[in-house]
Amino acid sequence: MTNEPFSAAASLDELLTRTQQALSAMRSRPAEHTDGDAPELLRADGTAADGLVRAVVVQGGRLESVTVDPRLSAAGIETVCGHIVAAVNAALADLEAQVSATARADVDALAARLAAAPRLRLTH
């Protein structure tokens, strides 16, 4: 004769172990690529001064490039610097949105895996 509370506890323990394994696998897994190449970092750009200033940032918060159109040179250094800051901040905001969307996709994938796991039935 089996003791159902112990059986249910073992099933719950197994479910928790599977969940931890799934989370661990998702955390350590790089972004999936079908071509087998290393995943590219997320990249975002932002502009200011009607497109005369462009900044590109990559995942991890690194600034990759800043481009200032020469037509802006007469505006003065303080004005140009202000536009650079605005372009970088716009790029960072876009990157943050991309990272959030990726995190939501990971959570959705985890939820799908958990939904596919066997249901635990506890009886008294």
Automatic annotation (TrEMBL):
Alphabetized UniProt keyword annotations: DNA-binding
SUPFAM superfamilies, per database record: YbaB-like
Membrane-spanning segments? none
GO molecular function, one example?
DNA binding
Pfam families for this protein: YbaB_DNA_bd
Q: Establish whether keyword Methyltransferase is in the entry.
A: no
Q: What InterPro entries has UniProt attached to this entry?
A: YbaB-like_sf (IPR036894), YbaB/EbfC (IPR004401)
**In its UniProt entry, what is this protein called?**
YbaB/EbfC DNA-binding family protein
